[in-house]
Amino acid sequence: MTAIQALYRDDFDHGRAIRLWLYLVAALIFAMVVVGGATRLTESGLSITEWQPVTGTLPPLSEAQWLTEFQKYQAIPQYRQLNAGMSLADFKTIYWWEWAHRLMGRVIGVVFFVPFVWFLWRGWIPPNRRGGLWMILALGGLQGAIGWWMVASGLADRLEVSQYRLAMHLVLACLIYVAVVWTGKRWQDERPRSLFGEFGKAAPPLTIRAGAIALMVLLLVQIYLGALVAGLRAGHAYNTWPSIDGGLVPQSARLFFEVPWWRNFFENPLTVQFDHRMLGYVIGLLALLQLFNVAKLVKRDSIFIFTSAALVAAAVFVQVALGIWTLLLVAALPLALLHQATAMITLTLAVVHAAHAFSPKVSATVATRG
Question: Which of 265, 14, 222, 23 is nearest to 120 (CA)?
């Protein structure tokens, strides 16, 4: 018995170290998404016109190097058509945003890879967990490549990056973030079951689990639409609420004039902003329904899942209010950044809520009818 307790204590310490590592990685991804938003909103993303994974770690260190980088930027359409006459000092400002964004990507890669290899070497990661962590690492590498693919779209024939690639870049970052937070949160639940067996008597209600997953998926779709809104500058148009383009629902001829029709969902600023608004309302309704469902089907002593559902609902409504405020002020930079940061907070709470919905601790406290 003493040996089993010692084994469990050692595993708990290892699990705690791994969870702290995953939460650190998640915090860095969170910060990088916010910095990426600032990079987009300040039109800084095209200031570095080359992808140099190793040598690009260092910024220009002399005035001559700064002038060289500035000359590279002056050769792309964005400078010639939008920023002609920009001073070197102004260029340095946008350069630092993009450089910080790329540096954070490199830091996240190191912070994930080095401890991961060390934990593998020490045997702290069970075999059934390794595949998921390797997948996260692979997605991180893919994210770097997609980031450059996105930047490259704005260097030759466009003034800005493609909204398609921008949205893909942001959503992949969010998917990696969800995977890291989910893995860290679920790590603490699954090890006790492997030692002592299943201790839940029944699965959580299907509607609760389905609602939790639906909230996560719809929030990711909403973030994708938000990226399209940013890429099309749709937040700078149709700045009225609750009406849009003169009514609660725009005329169909204004929503669907691109050919083929599906392009309107990605390239028509009015359609993209309208979809973003409508999905926000749907998510708000679903968050309320999920909260009421949890209150009805789960016992009051299951405080974690009820609290997490309430926090998700509150965050969604704060985010909707921020979105309206941002719209009315024509996407003012501080509000737009706060809106993006709150989207990440809302997504975080949704992941935590889903983890609680699938937790064996909840299944042991499901209320019975009668």
Answer: 14
